[in-house]
Amino acid sequence: MADGLFGGFGGGAEEVPKKEMPKKERRVKLFPWDSVATQMLEPYGESSFDSMSLDALWAATAKGNKSAEYHSHLCAPQDQDPWHVGAGISLTAAALLAAIKHFRDENIQMLLKPEWYEKIEAEVKKLEPTLRILNLGKGSQVQRDTGSFRQAKKQKTGAFEATGTPPTAEDMKNAAKNFHQWLKQDRSPFRSFLFIVSASNTYYTAHIAETVARAGVAHKPMSVEDFQLAMEARNTQAPPASTASASTASGLFEM
């Protein structure tokens, strides 16, 4: 009998009622690809991020997608989940600290007029201790993994690394207040600098694109003639069609 394979089509077979699938619950654990930075990245052009107003940006961030409840832990409900809001603040501090590290590169000093560099550095010098306190690393600071590499990684950056002493509750409270006040400022030399050098993500993506192309020329390798033939094909021909069939019976009859 082949009822198990062909049953349900004609022959007075009973109609099986459709079972509604339960709606998938969206997760609050965020992966790197869920972040706003990744979502707004345009690999081969300009990101539209800088054209968004703050209210439009927040609405899109809080909306999330079919998998993630939101695109930043800052969107977690304050009354129900302050831990994740704190994680969002901590990750923001970590991102800013990484930028500060590279702002102090000697190449940046050569590119900027001295008065501009000094103006930004004055703000950064005041902000940095606050960010170091807020940057708690990844994971829980309460659940300790004594003696493990994971615990060392969690405490890799921030105030603990700078001083060897974890911040006190009062330190954390003051740092949170200072950071909030900094974010509320209408003007900030450092924020202006970040806006300019981000260049709608074009410097980063252009750097990646040309480096990958150089790697291809050197190690695929690709010659001038290869480039010319490839561009002639791209300019004059249709893209190659896939030869794979959408569905086959091979899964049933192959031995």
- Roughly how much helix do the residues carry, as a percent range? 40-55%
Average per-residue pLDDT, rounded, comes to 86
Which radius of gyration do the C-alpha atoms yield?
Answer: 27 Å
Low-pLDDT parts are 1-11
Query: Hey, roughly how much beta strand do the residues contain?
Result: under 5%
Shape from CA axes?
extended
Protein architecture, described:
There is one protein chain. This protein is mainly alpha-helical and 255 residues long. Among the domains are: 26-40 and 52-75, no CATH class; 87-140 and 149-216, no CATH class. The chain is built from 13 helices and no strands. The radius of gyration is 27 Å and the shape is extended. It starts with a helix and ends with a helix.
Task: Kindly summarize this structure in a few lines.
Helices cover 55% and strands 0% of the residues.
Write the layout of secondary structure elements.
Layout: H1 3-6, H2 36-39, H3 54-63, H4 82-103, H5 106-111, H6 114-134, H7 149-154, H8 159-163, H9 169-184, H10 189-198, H11 202-219, H12 224-236, H13 250-253
Helix pairs in contact: 4-6, 6-9
Key features of this structure:
255 residues, 13 helices, extended
